[in-house]
Amino acid sequence: xxxxxxxxxxxxxxxxxxxxxxxxxxxxxDTLASALLANGVRLVGRSFKYHRPRGVxxxxxxxxxxxxxxxxxxxxxPNTRATVAELYDGLTARSQNHLGPLKHDLLAVNDLFAPFFxxxxxxxxFMWPKALWExxxxxxxxxxxxxxxxxMLPDPDAYDRGYLHCDLMVIGAGAAGLTAALTAxxxxxxxxxxxxxxxxxxxxxxxxxxFAEISATDWIAQVLAELENLPNVRVLPRxxxxxxxxxxxxxxxxxxxxxLPEPGDTVRQSLWRITARRTVLAAGxxxxxxxxxxxxxxxxxxxxAMQAYANRWAVSPVAKAGDPVAVFTNNDDGHRSxxxxxxxxxxxxxxxxxxxDAPRLGDYALYNGATVTGSRGRHGLREIEITQNGKxxxxxxxxxxxxGGWNPNxxxxxxxxxxxxxxxxxxxxxxxxxxxxxxxxxxAAAGRGTTAQALASGMGAAQEALSxxxxxxxxxxxxxxxxxxxxxxxxxxxPGKRRAWVDLQNDVTVKDITLAHKENMRSVEHLxxxxxxxxxxxxxxxxxxxxMAVMAELTGKTIPQTGTTIFRPPYTxxxxxxxGGGDTGAHFRPRRLTPTHHWAKAKGAQFIEVGQWMRAxxxxxxxxxxxxxxxxxxxxxxxxxxxxxDVTTLGKIDVQGADxxxxxxxxxxxxxxxxxxGKTRYGLMLREDGFAYDDGTCARLxxxxxxxxxxxxxxxxxxxxxxxxxxxxWPDLDVQLISTTDAWAQIAxxxxxxxxxxxxxxxxxxxxxxxxxxxACAELTVCSGLRARLFRISFSGELAYELAVxxxxxxxxxxxxxxxxxxxxxxxxxxxxxxxxxxxxxxxxGAELNGQTTADMLxxxxxxxxxxxxxxxxxxxxxxxxGDSRRLVGLKPRDPNQKVTPGAHLFAQGAVQTMQTDEGWVxxxxxxxxxxxxxxxxxxxxxxxxxxxxxxAANPLEGEETLLEVVSAHxxxxxxxxxxx
Amino acid sequence: xxxxPRILLTRMEGACVTDLKPITALGASSxxxxxxxxxxxxxxxxxxxxxxxxxxxxxVPTPFGLALPQAGGFVGQNGLGAFWTGSDQWMLCAEGxxxxxxxxxxxxxxxxxxxxxxTDGWAAVDVTVADDAQxxxxxxxxxxxxxxxLSPGHATRTGLHHMTVFVVRPNTTQLRVIGMRxxxxxxxxxxxxxxxxxxxxxRPQAQSPN
Lengths: 981, 210
Prior knowledge:
A: alpha+beta; FAD/NAD(P)-binding domain; six-stranded mixed β-sheet; 48 strands; B: globular; disordered N terminus
């Protein structure tokens, strides 16, 4: 064990966990990384390309190395950073990216072939033969390189989403964030404080004495106690703000139960959409390292991380207790890390600093003007080579902390394409002025990195943000805090011939960058893509600036001249499950059920999705073994006796107002204002561009009251279209619109015996042909007093009606019709039979109204009235549309047993089948039990003049060709006599 | 004002006299009620709806004595309520009249207006909670609205889990979610799932003291 005394862990209880099958223990407050280090486990994974041994490098979400497969079974989660995984009892984790045991990874052989795996390796190597790429090269590369494995099982956990609104959101709960939140909270603003850590305090938790007179934990506890007691504050720990979106909307993921073995009744994670009027970005800073030869061994880590492990988790990141550590730094903070290690009782070999005038801040050996030039230790650091005044010497160390300065966490500030600005004093990019509106950076994220600066800037940022909102926030008392000078020198890497890693996650070395430069990949964007630098899960948080510095050195430019890195969401990886927001399976999306759904279900109906609707597809009866048997029976019943079908899904729009008729004249291509009260008319709507939009019926129930019906698919769009026309095109018209689709259960009663059936349920209503002819409509009562609407319209081509009752009665009405029609052979029919009937009758549906169809093509050209203007009328007369000679025709195979394939293209018999000779296509097809043949509808060039001609329907995808006879689209009752009887 | 639903599909005066038996939006003969800890969900089939829109140039009526509210507002008294749904448009609702021709009553109360029966266009679920704090937690999981727009006496149309709904806040502890009737099943699923998580299990506690 390498546990030290102190720390923010609860030693009173012990948590057991396994890593690669070995049992270890830790304490509440530990991360997996701190617990592994406390157990002396330094080797935690293998690198991406070369399979080099790797250890914990950081102490936060920027970790490039220590990624594990956490949990097992369906919950196995690859690429989990051990540095942010909270330890729980029973945790299991495995290391990634090795073949055989972690210590003896067979793929470590890759490291010997490193010269071949240089920058752009994939692009240069697997060029030939092309055919092998998909089958051999790619699978091989994926196996050898790459990170964790997926469980390939469905995620068993629940996720949800939520929405929060506030005056001020504070991102990050370190010194700056806590002060900002406190300042705003006391001013009465609605405040949300978010931090990705499970323990709030940020960098204060990692330092021994940030305040002069109070311990960091006491100060944090005081602030949090006050915040948690204020009703206007919401604190969200374990929550990462991953992106800034338009209008002050921030995406955040709360890891609600990631720290528990299983979530139980709660969700695993929540996706929050936070709408913040103003935001303080107090996300802190990420330390950078200094590449030197073989700087990637386990035991070499960021100096600030080493300090954090010692102070917060009471761990020295060495192999065994008592091993000395050293610090390699170009700045004063590195020295302070060394001081904290000494304070924690860890022997310090010394501080290696390239500055000749490096300060000595305490009692340790100082190697000034010196660098670390090498390291040894097969599975973990054993020795470092220090070169001072040209002399190299090897020294035993258990760990080396490296500090190359700090990069403000400007990620969120550079969403919305905010450009960071280079600060020559800080030697870092700081947030620019053009970042997301309303976002104010503070503390280390703004380059104000001492504790005193962070406190003051947090308070100032909150005051500034709130003053924009007209809220005056008073200053809060700040504790006296560390404000030491931040001396540093621009020292980006230790030059040398051996490999020095810049990006540990992607195995990119200084040499790779040099090679990319030689190969003319000089833009940082090209550099990134050629070398893969800054890609994958850590997005180069510890690598990008060092890489740019190396590139700048090679090009002889300054860093800002070389380029800037900006960032896109997400800040850290976000699981697809939480982005999905929860429901899977049946409730993946909302489902609309018809008023007779439960009735149909009880009747054994098969259902089919139609948009959001679930519609009965057919009703299998005992003995029917194939869906066609059911559908044929249903379709025949309608032609021979009577069938009933729920057609509620067709859109219904109530149109009222003094100008309703005028309005409908403008919406429909045909004349609608002349419709008599008590009558229904077929109507065609065109789009603005003149193509057919939707068809349906319009019934006039009163002088200024119409009901428009639409197709199922276009119910919403047509209503929206009408609202648009009403509100934006003709606001002067006195028209009121409202959808009534759901309000009325509408049942089609179709077939020669439909009148007889209906007569048994209507209350004193004359259904005779004279009193209620084809296309009549009426309001009436049925079943002893139930208000209803009756329309004599027909989609099937038979004598037919549609009866509407309040939706709650739809179920009972179906039962009543079945009961009353038993002796008439009443048959419920589903969507399939409905389709068969309308194809037999030649009625257009969605497949014919596909947005490419003109009224002429439908044979409805004369419906586009020239006596009035309507939407799309003028455009329908333009040359391109008028010239389209394709017409809707019926298609019947020469051999009735041959199928007609929808989508097949039509050609003259014997013609070469090319785009140029294409004469149209099959839109719909079915087997017609009434014709006893397969039949279809389609658009064919000059189709109306080609009846009787035999043409070829070609389906080259399946190698099918069928000879079809061109016939009338009205296979059944072409004169329409049945409708009118 | 008592704004609680009756649980059964009771026959009211003026109710429809048909011999057909209605079903609720969730497909049963009586309203579904489900309690989850301090949260209760209740289907409200007895609630009647009718839309009211002004004709051009018409003055605002006061049907049933209700002062029709401004944008975002809800008013209710004696089991009758109204909320704003658009420019010169409101939805009127009435307790215990789901089975009657409520639109006819509204038409009589607001002569000359365009009135449309909407009772079965919608399915309303009443969610009752313990207190305002729980309501805020619930709202945050359901709708992307600043809570101030849903304080008592407010109503608005918004999206909820890919559905379009009206949310009405008659009082501190009650939220009425009104969705399309055909989506009642999905709406109930969403509300019940959310309520269950809030009502039964409290948020897991952090392991480490802070």
